[in-house]
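Give me structure tokens for this 292-residue protein.
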Amino acid sequence: MYPYIVIGSLHLGLFGLMLWLAAVAATFVLHRNFVRNGVDADALNVVAMVVIAGVVGAKAWHELQSVRDLRYALRVIGAPGWRHAAEVAARFLVWFQAGFAWFGGMLAGIATLMWQGRGARFRGPLEGTLGKRVGPVRMLDLAAPAAAVGYGVGRIGCLLSGDGDYGVNTTLPWGVHMAKNALVPPVPPTALVQPTPIYELLFSLAVFWVLWQLGKRARPVGWMTGVYLVLSGAGRFLVEFVRINPKIYFHQTMSNAQVAAAASAIVGLAVLAQAQAKSVQWTPELSPDPRT
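Here you go.
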């Protein structure tokens, strides 16, 4: 696995490239879902805001797992002093390029989607008019298939960059070698390891297909969000059994991401139950008045 594509003096990080491809894929899926459901919103703007918030949230969640390490990193970044602002900025960028936690990105992405749902509108019954507001929970429902696709594609960036998201040593025929300059090299460096991000890509594509098919029929508000949380949480929970992430909970049997994934699935079940019980109509009555 190779963290960078080197073309002369250009060093193109594959993690960043795959993050961009993930955003492109998610934008396409979200746009198709907007069209299918008669939503008058710009999918590109929605995804761009979610990506920015997700990256910041994922970085913050990862760093806050060890406040002592975070304080040390900040001291190293600021060591040259503010008179050497360019060097401080360069150190910050180097620090920021690695270390992201899935759960923090998901929370920040959810919050951003809900905020954008307050402003998005359905199309009105007449051309050029707008209907009711989409609302926070409906926006989550609309974004669920796109989130599945984007997450899966983005995970390949983690594998290519060698940031430690791969699996345990293996003798399986599809095991992969990590680059010698990987951020977290395997032990021993020549070992074959399980390509767990590929497992997540395949699982995410399956989740996308299920959600897309389920979205062909009207469902209660929040129902699709619950399904996404259950399925995505279950997938991440299972893959953690063969990932090298440190086991720090429940007598060193579960990783931080595994606990977060289990919580996601449990919350998803609660959201599903509530959505089914309330059975709120997914598509509200449209209004020809664009001011409503």
